[in-house]
Hints:
Blueprint: H1 3-14, H2 18-27, H3 30-38, E1 57-62, H4 68-82, E2 87-92, H5 95-108, E3 117-119, E4 124-126, E5 132-137, E6 151-155, H6 163-173, E7 181-186, H7 192-198, E8 203-208, H8 218-228, H9 232-237, H10 253-258, E9 260-261, E10 301-310, E11 318-327, E12 332-337, E13 340-341, H11 345-359, E14 363-367, H12 372-382, E15 388-391, H13 397-409, E16 413-416, H14 420-427, E17 429-430, E18 434-435, H15 443-457, E19 466-467
Parallel strand pairs: 1-7, 1-8, 2-5, 2-6, 6-7, 9-16, 10-14, 12-16, 14-15
Antiparallel strand pairs: 3-4, 4-5, 10-11, 10-19, 11-12, 11-13, 17-18
Helix pairs in contact: 4-5, 11-12, 13-15
Amino acid sequence: MNKRKSWALLLALDALTPKERLRALKRLPAPALRGIAEEWWWQAHQGQREPGGDWRIWLLMAGRGLGKTTLGAEWVWARARETPGAEIALVGGTLAEVGRVMARALTAAARTGEAPLWVPSRGVFEFPSGALAYAYSAERPEALRGPEHHFAWCDELAKWRHADRAWDNLMLGLRGGERPRALVTTTPQPVPLLRRIKALDRLAETDGRSDRNRHLPAEHLAAMKAAYGGTRLGRQELDGELIEDVEGALWTRETMEAGRVDMGTVGMGTGTFPRGGDMGTVTSNCPREGGGESHCPPGRPLRRIVVGVDPPASAAGVCGISVCGLGADGIFYVLADASGGGLSPEGWARKVAKAAETWGADRVVAEANQGGDMVKAVLKAVAPGLPLRLVHASRGKVTRAEPVAALFETGEAKLAGRFPALEDELAGMVTGGDYVGPGNSPDRADTMVWAMTELMARRDLGPRVRSL
């Protein structure tokens, strides 16, 4: 059944009630049912749909498990069916990977009655239409010098060896037919070749998270999110994000990952508190004190806790709120990012008060360059007993951050949890005073710096020891 007929049939079936649809399907001959079941175009989920437009290169950077390999195989089959005699390049990291991953996926994508042939000794995949797909390895880029191709499928390009030479040779030979095209399917990694490709003309770029694939087991997705959600590895391998370091950044991604710890929970009195992260979304599975055995990791004692606040200039802005602590081990810890946007003065003040109460803060440090008296009045109106200290910025945010960044470099400061929005801002602060991160200003990062600076200034003052 061709695509037009199967599409018309699917539309007709969709217009029926479930009972009518079942009766109609039972009356269809087996070939028609098989034709519908084997059509890829209507089964593809959002992350697997081919973009429109006159593109030459389609770059799909997506998380693991999205179905990139299945998409690649179906795309190659579509080209082979519509272009009899086509010459197609299959390029992987190694020849073994081409056979084990790409050729196997092509074999699985064959429809009933199609009898493709994979010849490993020759590295050739033969399609019923007469089209041929040739296996190439990025380890041997010179093999791509000379051959001419109509289409190409490049898999996991981000881990190719000799990537630039392999890509250049492939592109120089991608000149067969009237509309030569290449599909690149890869998990993102900050490699130079991906940057080159992203800057090309006639590029179509799509992405996708692992959880878009409805066929992945929910248990697996939940386990991966619990283990890696919010980390650089998770954002890259699960969310499909290309996370790069900015040249001259005060905080590199490597430094932040190296200093990440799980501080467990903070328990004071009868309270039980989050394991870091955004307090509005991260919850703890640890029982309240006296409520039975705790399954949380061993705690770390804290000497002082400070909440940093950067009030928004308008209701549309973000109120930066960070919670930091000084451990009895002499290490500074980022405990929470409780920032929020779109809040009224009373709204962000209550959010600050909640953070201070939740974490038992010794001090709340609020920047008062814009409306100092108003900031104090709003906070005191919501929480009269708030241990508030107003601070005035005489230097730029990035300049103020440099001493704190030095603590992370030496291992004297660590992230106690996962804070994607805060970490993106930290990664965008550049030596010399520039900011190239998300948003117009690093508000979250600035509040963390204020809190850390307060802890550094009073490092020897420890009125009590807390368990975290």
